[in-house]
Automatic annotation (TrEMBL), chain A:
This is Cation diffusion facilitator family transporter. Coiled coil: none annotated. GO terms for molecular function: monoatomic cation transmembrane transporter activity. Keywords: Membrane, Transmembrane, Transmembrane helix, Transport. The lineage of its organism: Bacteria, Pseudomonadati, Bacteroidota, Flavobacteriia, Flavobacteriales. Its main location: membrane.
From TrEMBL, chain B:
Gene3D superfamilies: Periplasmic binding protein-like II. This is Lipoprotein. It comes from the Bacteria.
Length: 314, 141
């Protein structure tokens, strides 16, 4: 059986992966602390409940990344001749589906709260002999859920782009935007403090919409990746310019009279086939050289097949 | 980042200009101060443990009235009648020897337990009234 070769990241990216793994480990520990703190002060606020569930789910991409990094570069075998690269895509799909599903649940739950006129009751506690309204603790907990998350999200963006890792990139982008969730929930709590009970449910609905939007975008991305869509540049809706570069390189080969390329993403790396028209005699040698040259264009180009054909359009 | 800066500004503004949170959506505490405190009392068989507990809670509410200089009026009824009155803002709170994990807790707001176990029922979301009741509870604890 023809097996794809074992994948090795270039040395400078091994460093980036190490950094990303460390940041994700920090994220998991931090998010567990956020989940506990938020749960302790949650009370009956709908906005707090929504923000808490969002935080609970935001741990999924980090765990998925950490698990995937232990699997993705296992050598290909007879059972998995293309290797394990797609573990990232599967992890991405799982996280997106969870996010989207939870968003749908939250919007229904928050709307029921609003329609039924559910009024959040927020009590108080004594700290060092002073009575303090629990709403203030909720606000502090929400700030704790936002500020370190923003910093972590910001730090993860560069390694995500360098590694062309969508799950890491989504995680970084979502975390960077976490302040909006926290900010919206804070406004909900302040609304309750001012006696505007409906403000809490409305803010919860806004958070749910943002969760659904994130979930939907990620879900469509994950599905289209698994459907072998042409590779897209990370964090954008444009085809990776690397494909154009590949086409330009092949166009320069004097032995090629005509060609067509087809590439797809397998997690972080690309697999592709190139059909060439040629009348040269030493095709085998030329193809071997061609594959070598194309692979030097970028580390993402992992597995290429160049085949000689009689006609490009059968 | 702009959004976050604006949010921080709003929070600081709110804190600086008004630390007077929480407030009541239905202005229960204002109504108590201006008129009187309508306390629902759950009917219980005389000589039962619950009856004794409710009598203690009545005394506690009278002390609460004295503490805040508000008049109290006690209205008897069944749990169902009183919860209905509470949710329709006809009374301000219910005393009935309720434990903190009572099955009715989802239908009403509850105070912190005044003895570690028992709570008072208030209308959901009346957070200023709750704040005042808990201020008193923490004082007598």
């Amino acid at each position: 059986m023809y097996l794809t070769h074992t994948f090795e990241l270039p040395p400078h990216l091994k460093k980036a992966l190490k950094k990303a793994t460390f940041l994700e480990k920090v994220t998991v520990v931090y998010l567990i602390s956020v989940i506990v703190v938020m749960f302790l002060v949650m009370g009956s606020s709908q906005a707090m409940k929504t923000a808490w569930l969002e935080d609970l789910l935001s741990i999924v991409p980090s765990i998925a990344f950490l698990v995937s990094t232990r699997i993705y570069n296992r050598p290909a075998n007879k059972k998995f001749p293309y290797g394990y690269h797609r573990v990232f895509s599967i992890a991405f799909l799982t996280g997106s589906l969870a996010l989207f599903g939870m968003g749908m649940f939250l919007i229904v739950d928050s709307s029921i709260s609003l329609i039924s006129g559910e009024r959040p009751t927020i009590g108080s506690t004594m700290i060092f002999g002073k009575q303090i309204w629990l709403g203030w603790f909720m606000i502090i907990a929400l700030l704790y859920s936002a500020i370190p998350a923003m910093i972590l999200g910001h730090k993860k963006q560069k390694p995500a782009k360098d590694l062309h890792n969508k799950i890491l990139h989504t995680d970084a982008t979502t975390q960077k935007a976490d302040y909006m969730t926290a900010g919206t929930a804070i406004l909900g709590i302040i609304g309750v403090g001012y006696g505007l009970w409906w403000f809490d449910a409305i803010m919860a609905i806004l958070i749910s919409i943002s969760v659904i939007k994130d979930g939907y975008n990620n879900l469509t991305n994950a599905i289209t990746d698994l459907m072998d869509r042409v590779p897209y540049k990370i964090g954008s809706q444009i085809v990776d310019p690397l494909l154009e570069e590949i086409e330009k390189t092949i166009a320069y080969w004097s032995w090629v009279e005509g060609f067509e390329i087809r590439f797809r993403e397998h997690g972080q790396v690309y697999f592709g086939e190139i059909k060439v028209l040629t009348s040269e005699d030493n095709v085998e040698e030329l193809i071997t050289e061609g594959i070598k040259e194309l692979k030097q264009l970028h580390w993402k180009i992992h597995d290429i097949t160049i085949m000689q054909v009689k006609s490009l359009h059968p | 980042m702009k959004w976050f800066e604006h949010l921080l500004f709003i929070i600081v503004f709110l804190v600086v200009t008004n630390c007077n949170m929480p407030k009541d959506p239905n202005k229960s505490w204002n109504s108590i101060k201006q008129h009187e405190m309508q306390v629902g009392v759950v009917q219980a068989p005389v000589d039962s443990e619950r009856f004794k507990l409710i009598e203690q809670e009545k005394i506690m509410m009278e002390k609460f009235g004295t503490f805040y200089k508000v008049k109290s009026k006690f209205l008897e009824g069944t749990e169902t009648q009183l919860i209905d009155s509470l949710n329709n803002n006809k009374i301000h709170l219910i005393i009935g020897g309720f434990e903190k994990n009572n099955i009715l807790k989802n239908e009403v707001g509850t105070t912190a337990p005044y003895d570690g176990i028992h709570v008072l029922f208030i209308p959901k979301g009346e957070n200023l009234l709750l704040f005042k009741l808990e201020e008193f509870i923490y004082k007598i604890k």
